[in-house]
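Sequence in, structure out.
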Amino acid sequence: MTTAKFSWESEAHRYDESRGGEVRAQAAAEGLEQLLPRDVRVLADVGGGTGIIGRRLVRQGREVVVVDLTQAMLQLANSRLPGRALRASADRLPFRDGALDAVTSVWLLHLLPDSRPVVAEFARVLRPGGVVVCTVDKDACHDVGSDIDDVLGELRPRRDNAVGAAEQDATARIVAHGADFGLEPVGEGAFTAHLRGTTPTSLADLIRGDRYQFWARRLAPADRQRVLDGLAALPDQDRKRPDPTFRLLALRRS
């Protein structure tokens, strides 16, 4: 049996619901706000997708623009932030040098083939003293110490293991890129993605449909089958395991 190739365009209509919806978005926005300076007036949420998080970052006196490359996502973002949804690649942002007070980016960097040009672009569009707040170690954060994680073993990214250290959003990698472009770490935070708890059944379905985390698509066929067999052998097939807590990193432009 063949599966349809994953596409963000076709994923857009179910993206929010399948990833924790409004509850997850509120948690993410609260985590970002903890690291954003109070004087932010112009902010771009890069890779902001449907605008479900960006809408929550709007404040009196603060303009929020959602930037994404997926047209179907931007249609939803424009319904939430009319006239404030822009189509652009994260490595070619549609802002002049030093135009922004802040950049936020949730669950983007781990998807990139190379995060360095995007970090460079974040630095370019920030004013001196401006801040970028982004998720890091995203796939590794799904390791919650459950029996599912035991099945996945060292195949999955864990912070600082061989797989995790190679990910494009690994903390050490982002800090190193930032240093090259005048960005210095100034804080860390986290948010828990409530209602995202995974079950053995749901995870196996996602893996079979190539809709799980992107690292899973790199598995050799034998490793993939070993994971599926291990998941099938777990007890409580439909019991949700603990929710993951995602890490945030703040860097300031010198």
